[in-house]
Amino acid sequence: MPDKYRVAVFAHNEEHKILAALRSIEQAVPPDADLRAVVLANGCSDRTVPLVLTFMKEHPWVQLALIPLPSKTHAWNLYVHHIADDAPVHFFMDGDCRVSPNGLALMLDVWRQHPHAHAVAGFPLSGRHAFIYQAVMRKARLVFGNLYAIAGAHLERIRMAGVHLPVGTRGEDHLVTRLLWRESFVIEKCDNRLVVYREDAGYVFDSLQPWRLRDWRTFFRRRINYRLRTYHIRALDPLHPRDWPRTTDAINRQILQELDEHPPAAWDWVGRALRRRLRRMYPRPDSAYYEDLLGRFPSYQLITAQTPPSAYELLLES
Length: 318
Hints:
By secondary structure, this protein is an alpha/beta fold. The protein has 12 helices and 9 strands. The protein has helices at 18-27, 48-56, 72-83, 103-113, 130-140, 152-161, 172-180, 213-236, 249-261, 269-281, 289-296, 309-317, and strands spanning 4-11, 34-42, 62-67, 89-94, 98-99, 119-124, 147-151, 195-204, 301-303. It has a 9-stranded mixed sheet with strand order 5-8-6-7-4-1-2-3-9, sandwiched between helices. The radius of gyration is 20 Å and the shape is globular. The mean pLDDT is 92.
C-alpha cells in the first residue's frame, strides 16, 4: 500500500504564493503516494479561494476548507478535531512556504526511524536569518509554524484531552511545541527529544523585498503580530494546556488596558499600531471580538473532488 500523506495548508490571503505551495507538496512525495492536502482558507478576502478551486479541477488530491473566521489557531483546531483522518502522520504548513524537494517523504522516513517521536520539525532552509533558526532548531527542538508533522497517535491524545489552541493567538507554534513535548496531558513532564528533524528536509520561502509595496504591508503586519505574540505567550505560558481559554479576548483586553495605562512612546510605532488595532477590536470594556466571530462562524465548509460542479461554479462566481 502507498504511504499516506495528509497535509493541512494554512492560508489567509495567500493569492501570490498558495499555488507554489501546493505544487511543492506534489514534488515532496513519491509519485504513487496516497496524498491529500486540505487548504484551510481562513478569512480570505483576496483570490486565494478561486485560485485553489481552479487548481483542484486538475489536482483532485487537493481539498478546500472554507473557514470564514480569520484565525490560524481556529483553523488548526478544526483540522485536528474535525477534519484529520486516521493517517499515521499529519503535516502542517503555511501557504506562503514551499516544501523542499522530496521533503515530506524524508520527514516521514525520519519519523519511522524514531517511532517514539511525537513530531518531525521542518528544517528552515532559506531566509536572511536561516542560520539563526537552524541553530535554534538544533538546540531547542521546537517546531516553526512554517512546516512540521505530528504523529497521528499524538493528535489522538490531544483530541482525547480536549485541548484546543485559543482562537486568535499569535505565535501558535510556541503552543504547539508545548503540546508536542508532553508525554501525557495528565502529568507535568516535558521532553524536547520527542521532536526530531532532518537537516535536508524542510521548507523555503521568499524573503520580503523592499521594492514591493505588498511586502512592506506584510512587514508592518508582522511586526505588530510579533509584538502581540510576545504578550500572548507571556499570558499563556503559565497555564496548563487544558486550562487555555477558548479565545484570546480576555488577554487582548488586558493588553489594551496596559497600553492605555502606559502609552507607547512616540517612537514606538509598533506599540501604537497595536494599541489602535486593539481599540478597534474592543471598543467597549465588555467587547468579545473572537467570541462574537465564533458565534457567527463556528464551523467550515469542505469542498472536495466529489463536490458537484455546480457548487464549484457558484463559489467561483461569488
